[in-house]
Design goal:
The structure holds 2 protein chains of 2 kinds. Chain A has helices spanning 39-66, 69-73. By secondary structure, chain A is mainly alpha-helical. The model of chain A has no long low-confidence stretch (mean pLDDT 81). Chain B is an all-alpha fold. Chain B has helices spanning 5-12, 16-29, 35-58, 62-70, 72-103, 108-121, 128-141, 144-151, 156-164, 175-188, 191-203, 211-241, 249-260, 262-295, 309-327, 333-358, 362-369, 373-398. In chain B, helix 3 (35-58) packs across helix 16 (333-358), helix 5 (72-103) packs across helix 6 and helix 13 (249-260) packs antiparallel against helix 14 (262-295). Classes of the chains: A mainly alpha, B mainly alpha.
Chain lengths: 74, 404
């Protein structure tokens, strides 16, 4: 009677936790300058600056309001 | 399979402030706002998936990436804003611990320092895995919210209907309804989450091949979080049905005791403490990791206390200072809560813009890790909505007369 050979018999699976594994080469910023100023990056940062200016202006108004200065100016 | 950062970041997001917001939503509008959670589920997932992908691709935290790719100005701005909003949020977490345990008869001078000490102990063991296992156990305690939701016997058919079909509450669309919806969005997607998960993924040294598991982890975490949030709304809804008005979950818990029993009261109070503890450890770690990355200090839970003194000192300083602040008599908590909303309105849109731009940085990530066009369509839509909501919420806080 022919015996079937199990091709996987000599193999086994070993699960390695990431903390115990060899470190891999990650995407690095080494040797890279700052992010390229593509139109998308330029517009996004411009919008962000505008947003932060509006928020800062609101915050300033709120602080002046709490201090009673806005009321005095009216 | 790797599991942990996705579940932890999502469940820690159900912190004390979130418990308060979700229960307030149930307490003021019954089941009417359940649908918001279904809308928020994919938003949470898409944002955090980008964070996990960036963390796996670079092996670095979000603060470090902003510094390295956008320069010192944006790096310092993001870090400063993150540290401020995190510290203010930590104060609200300790205030919740103090409030909930006071309602159970524990003096704040005991509950707050003991909590701060316990929160320090769980990170200084020199083992990331030990910290992760403890925190996952705390996350799973949140399963108790389902038991509480079951105990208050909601109308399950109405729950199903309200979850899938938005309905307008009896008073119509008022400004308080709109701002509660914005508050729900704001509490579900918090700025520290972006920094925390990316640093956590880097800390766990997830490999490229782990991305599919990190995505599954994030999806499970997002689903678990919104379902738990739904359970919180159902408990709040019990108060709504009985005409109980409350300003915080501790008040509701005490008012519920004669009707729903002491089990529900103590359950709500202890879950509030658990939520605050989870939020505190995650937020403090987000600050310590971010500060350590930017300063170039050793910043890892794998290291012993003396091997990463700056990192652990930052964590302990965050926890200790917030705990001490809460113990000051007549502390202006309302001012702290307003400041959290204002600073979150500054940091969330900026952090999320940087995330989106980094995920389109072909020079850094190559073709394998950058966003696909469909990713970008979804993510830019989410960003525009979050910008608008953050601006609206900040405007409502700072210029209340505009909405009167």
């Amino acid at each position: 009677m022919a015996t079937m050979q199990n091709p996987y018999a000599s193999e086994y699976l070993r699960v390695i936790h990431p903390l115990d594994d060899e470190p891999e080469q990650k995407c690095s910023t080494e040797g890279l300058a700052h992010i390229a100023m593509t139109p998308a990056v330029r517009i996004s940062l411009g919008v962000l600056r505008g947003y932060l200016i509006v928020m800062s202006a609101m915050l300033l108004y709120h602080v002046l309001d709490l201090a009673g200065i806005v009321h005095q100016l009216r | 399979m790797v599991f942990g950062p996705g579940l932890i970041v999502m469940e820690a997001d159900n912190d004390a402030g979130a418990v308060s917001t979700y229960m307030q939503a149930g307490g003021q509008y019954g089941l009417h706002l359940l649908w918001t959670l279904i809308v928020l589920l994919p938003i949470c997932y898409f944002v955090q998936e980008m964070v996990a992908r960036l963390g796996i691709a670079t092996g670095k935290g979000h603060a470090a990436m902003i510094y390295e790719r956008f320069g010192k100005w944006w790096g310092r701005f993001s870090l400063f804003d993150l540290l401020v909003v995190n510290f203010l949020t930590l104060i609200t977490e300790f205030a919740a611990i103090s409030l909930a345990l006071s309602a159970m008869g524990v003096n704040p001078w005991i509950s707050v320092p003991v909590s701060a000490f316990g929160l320090t102990l769980i990170v200084v063991t020199g083992s990331y895995l030990r910290w992760e296992r403890i925190v996952i156990a705390l996350c799973l305690i949140d399963l108790t919210w389902f038991a509480l939701a079951y105990l208050v016997h909601p109308d399950w058919a109405a729950v199903g209907r309200s979850t899938i079909a938005p309905t307008i509450p009896a008073g119509g669309i008022t400004s308080s309804l709109v701002f509660l919806v914005i508050a729900i969005v704001g509490t579900t997607i918090a700025p520290w989450q972006l920094f925390f998960q990316q640093s956590c993924v880097a800390e766990k040294r997830l490999r490229f091949s782990d991305l599919k598991w990190a995505r599954l982890d994030t999806l499970i975490g997002a689903t678990f979080t919104v379902v738990v949030a739904g359970a919180m709304m159902l408990v709040g809804n019990y108060g709504y049905q009985r005409g109980i008005t409350f300003e915080d979950p501790a008040q509701l818990a005490i008012a519920l005791a004669p009707m729903a029993g002491h089990l529900v009261r103590d359950g709500v109070l202890l879950l509030m403490v658990n939520a605050a503890v989870l939020g505190t450890t995650a937020i403090s770690l987000a600050s310590a990791w971010a500060y350590g990355e930017v300063r170039g200090w050793p910043h890892s839970l794998h290291k012993k206390l003396w091997e990463a003194p700056g990192f652990y000192a930052t964590y302990i300083a965050c926890v200790g200072a917030a705990a001490a602040f809460v113990l000051i008599p007549h502390v202006p908590l309302q001012l702290v809560i307003i400041s959290v909303q204002v600073f979150a309105g500054l940091i969330l849109p900026s952090a999320i813009i940087f995330l989106q731009l980094l995920l389109n940085d072909h020079e850094l990530l190559g073709e394998r890790w950058v966003n696909r066009p469909w990713n970008n369509v979804i993510n830019w839509t989410i960003i525009v909505v979050l910008f608008a909501l953050s601006l609206l919420l900040a405007a409502q806080v700072m210029l209340p007369n505009l909405f009167a």
